[in-house]
Amino acid sequence: MQRPKADNFTAISRTYNQVTGGATRDVGKFILSIAPKIDKSSHILDNACGTGIVSEEIRSIHKEAPIQAIDFSSGMIEVVRGLSEENNWESFDAKEMNGQELEFPDETFTHSISNFGIFMFPDSRKGLSEARRTLKTGGWIVVTSWSLVGWYQPLYAAFNRFKPNCNLFIPPKFPLWNTKQVAFNTLSEAGFKNVETLEYNTFAKQKNIETHVTLMTSSLKKQLMKDWPLTDISEFEAILRDEFEKVVEVDEEGNYAIKMNSLVSHGIK
Ligand SMILES: C[S@@+](CC[C@H](N)C(=O)[O-])C[C@H]1O[C@@H](n2cnc3c(N)ncnc32)[C@H](O)[C@@H]1O
């Protein structure tokens, strides 16, 4: 599977927060709990900001700390600008920009945060070198990645049951970031000091299994399944529902939760 392009992200920009089921937000909150102090004198980069989940979490605790959000998807930037206008965020700017070619001077930011961004860039090393260039000496970087995405297993199993051996779905691989050791090495080799990689496990939560299935298939229908007859789609959805039932956990609030395990790698320039 190829790395997603900006248009793929634009296509899901309106549903992204629901699709992720709170998983990236939960990791975003964890990031802020380990971040060096954020205050008015900070300058924070929200790199590959998506719909602005990390910026929103920062704003919920720091009203004034200057934030620069960037993303290469115009749709994502539209959503985050809407959020900022709705909430009258001050000292906030969002720009459409490639994280592999940041348009900021050297030594600009005190905090460089990329929540599930740099790890999926086509060239993560270039993304890290740009993040390092634009970070002040002594500034803090954090990059998160998934070591386990609970959706992949039921999706993979459902496709294999539907059309055995066709390899219709192959989970994307992010080899620089998928284990604690390699994520640690990747950040260290990019020149950061005091690197540490922490494991933080969370869940993508929906109100029922049907929502998990619908959210999955609605994006598949635009790509992989776009030419499938309706009967095939219904048959596949029934299989997928069955596979989701095998892995989903019901939490104390009655949510249907899928495991998402993250790696949180952070260090200092
Ligand atoms: C999984 S989302 C993460 C969004 C958000 N940071 C969060 O916490 O939920 C990945 C984001 O990376 C962006 N992205 C991927 N490659 C990029 C690149 N080369 N430059 C800038 N943004 C990129 C996508 O558009 C998408 O919004």
Automatic annotation (TrEMBL):
Q: Which GO terms describe its molecular function?
A: methyltransferase activity
One Pfam family here: Ubie_methyltran
Q: Which organism is it from?
A: Acrasis kona
Please identify the protein, giving its name as recorded: Methyltransferase
- Example GO BP: methylation
Is Methyltransferase there in the keyword field?
Answer: yes
Q: Which UniProt keywords apply?
A: Methyltransferase, Transferase
Which superkingdom, per the lineage?
Eukaryota
